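A.,

Following up on our hallway conversation. Structure tokens first:
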């Protein structure tokens, strides 16, 4: 859609009018964030185990001394040779955030069902510095609805995003949040999937401010243009 060309005075009037809507959105987002923090939590009963560069870890270990843990469910399955391009697009936003999160008592890590050696090789290739663990042999991915059996994939029934969307692949993306009490008990507080992941991608939000936005309407699917950052032609 083409934009109307107007005078500076007309532009300023339109911009101020739009700012009213932006402020309404900001206040609503603050209210939503506050309500999210009031959601109930669930005690983690299973003894999930993860593999990392330093050996085996429990879910409690992944907190790394912090009381809050955010896990990105990165799509890299047991038989995959490299990570999902879209997950890689998201993960490019995480480098450099750890020091800031740590000063708010938060640990960010990624978890995939693929073998650790493939995870570490891909992480090194991409130049990322966030912690990334393998949940191979664990129920973790299945319990948090980001890995799916062949039967689930073929059924056509909604199996993703809290049972609202059918997902036909063996791996899906998501974020899950956990809290650790002083006595070491771990609680599950939140997960988000599908469009709920948008907020974690700053590149998309920068695009949203431009005249053409994400410019994906004519593509076969929304992220058809996305490549791993070392695979763009220029």
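Then the amino acids I'd put at each of the 234 positions:
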């Amino acid at each position: 859609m083409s934009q109307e060309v107007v005078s500076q005075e007309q532009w300023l009037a339109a911009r101020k009018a739009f700012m009213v809507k932006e402020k309404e959105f900001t206040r609503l987002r603050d209210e939503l964030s506050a309500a999210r923090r009031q959601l109930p939590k669930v005690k983690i009963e299973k003894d999930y185990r993860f593999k990392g560069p330093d050996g085996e870890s429990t879910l409690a270990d992944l907190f790394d001394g912090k009381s809050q843990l955010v896990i990105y469910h990165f799509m890299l399955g047991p038989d995959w040779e490299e990570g999902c391009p879209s997950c890689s697009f998201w993960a490019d936003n995480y480098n450099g955030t750890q020091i800031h999160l740590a000063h708010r008592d938060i640990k960010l890590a990624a978890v995939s069902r693929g073998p650790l050696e493939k995870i570490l090789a891909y992480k090194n290739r991409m130049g990322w510095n966030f912690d990334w663990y393998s949940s191979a042999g664990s129920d973790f991915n299945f319990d948090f609805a980001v890995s799916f059996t062949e039967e689930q994939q073929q059924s056509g029934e909604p199996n993703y995003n809290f049972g609202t969307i059918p997902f036909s692949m063996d791996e899906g993306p998501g974020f899950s949040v956990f809290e650790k009490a002083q006595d070491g008990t771990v609680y599950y507080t939140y997960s988000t999937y599908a469009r709920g992941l948008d907020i974690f991608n700053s590149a998309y939000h920068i695009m949203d401010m431009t005249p053409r936005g994400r410019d994906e309407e004519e593509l076969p699917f929304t992220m058809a243009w996305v490549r791993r950052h070392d695979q763009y032609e220029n």
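Residues 115 and 134 are 6 Å apart (CA to CA). Curious whether your intuition agrees with the design.

B.
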